[in-house]
Structures are given as structure tokens and as C-alpha cells.
Design a protein that fits this description.
By secondary structure, the chain is of the alpha+beta class. The protein contains six helices and six strands; from the N terminus they run αβαααβββαββα. β2 and β3 form a beta hairpin.
């Protein structure tokens, strides 16, 4: 798994999966083409809640264009680390995600910058979608894993509090994404 290459050591993670009866290429295409409109309104609500503190202090909040591919919209904050045909997409970001109004995000241009980054008070977040062959009738297991590494203890405590608050919503978003990928891929 390419995710292991980019973030082999981590302090927080979550993994979700679903079985999809479609070709690996149809699944990967569905991952890349999935839009926010295909997700529950709860998806938009959770992101609205997450961006509320920033909006209250006059900063722009996160918003998604409903009909544009979701992964494409993440390119502003995330860097795509790997794209293995019919197998895996890995993306990551580095930031102070626990700071709801003034957290810094590191702009990366190359995957190697992600691997080499080691400044304190930042979290390295990597996530993937991984397609693995399941043993019957053309069915594949599609999983998504998110990992976070926070190297210094003080920042890790801050992130742990943040993770405690957002974990259920984060998990629900990933489940919604997998369900949308399944619907889209099985229609093709």
C-alpha cells in the first residue's frame, strides 16, 4: 500500500471499507468523479459546522461546489501523493487542523516534501482510497484510511482533543463517500 510509504508511523487513524461489484477502473473513476451532491446533506452540514469558527471571525469558510469532483476540490489544501492505476489514490496535507480560526497549512508542491517535513506543532495527515480484489464474482473491497502523525507531544495533545470532537463526523463522511463510490461504480 502506497499510504505506508508516505505515513508509515502515525498516532491517529480510521479505516472504513465497502464491497463494490464493478471493475477496478470503474471504481477508481468513481472515486475521482464523486461529487458533494452525491453525498448526504449531512456532509455539507458537517463541513459548515467545521468552518463556523473561521466565519465568525470574518475568515472564509470551507465550501464545496456541489457538482464538481470532490477530490479535485481538495487540491487547494491537499497534495496528491500517489495515483496507482486501478489500485490506490493517496493524498495528504500538513497543517494545524486543531486551530479552528488561525491554523497554518503548509503548501506542498512535491510528494517528497510531505515525507521530509518534520517541524513541531503541525500534523501530517495522509489518506487513501484502496481497491483490493475480493475473491468472488468480480467484487472488490474498497477501503479508505486516514492517518495523522503529530510528532511533538504538546501538539499531539491538542490534536487529540480535536480528534475526540470530530472523529464521529469524520467517520460518517468517509462512510458516505464509500457509499457514493459504490452507487456510482455499480451504475457504470
Amino acid at each position: 500500500m502506497e499510504l505506508d510509504r508516505f505515513l508509515p508511523t502515525y498516532h491517529f487513524n480510521e479505516v472504513h471499507s465497502i464491497y463494490v461489484r464493478a471493475s477496478a477502473s470503474a471504481i477508481l473513476r468513481s472515486i475521482k468523479e464523486m461529487t458533494p451532491a452525491e453525498l448526504s446533506p449531512v456532509f455539507r452540514l458537517l463541513f459548515w459546522i467545521r468552518s463556523l469558527p473561521a466565519r465568525l471571525v470574518g475568515k472564509s469558510g470551507a465550501g464545496f461546489a456541489p457538482s464538481q469532483p470532490l477530490l479535485k476540490q481538495l487540491e487547494g489544501d491537499f497534495i496528491f501523493l500517489a495515483d496507482i492505476p486501478d489500485r490506490e489514490i493517496v493524498f495528504g496535507m500538513i497543517g494545524q487542523v486543531w486551530k479552528l480560526t488561525d491554523g497554518q497549512t503548509v503548501r506542498l508542491t512535491e510528494p517528497q516534501e510531505f515525507v521530509q517535513f518534520e517541524r513541531p506543532d503541525y500534523a501530517k495527515v495522509a489518506a487513501n482510497f484502496y481497491i483490493s480484489k475480493f475473491c468472488y464474482d468480480g467484487c472488490f473491497k474498497v477501503s479508505t484510511e486516514s492517518r495523522t502523525c503529530v510528532s511533538d507531544p504538546a501538539a499531539r495533545k491538542k490534536f487529540a482533543r480535536y480528534w475526540f470532537v470530530i472523529y464521529l463526523g469524520s467517520s460518517y463522511i468517509r462512510i458516505l463517500m464509500l457509499q457514493a463510490i459504490k452507487r456510482r461504480a455499480e451504475r457504470q
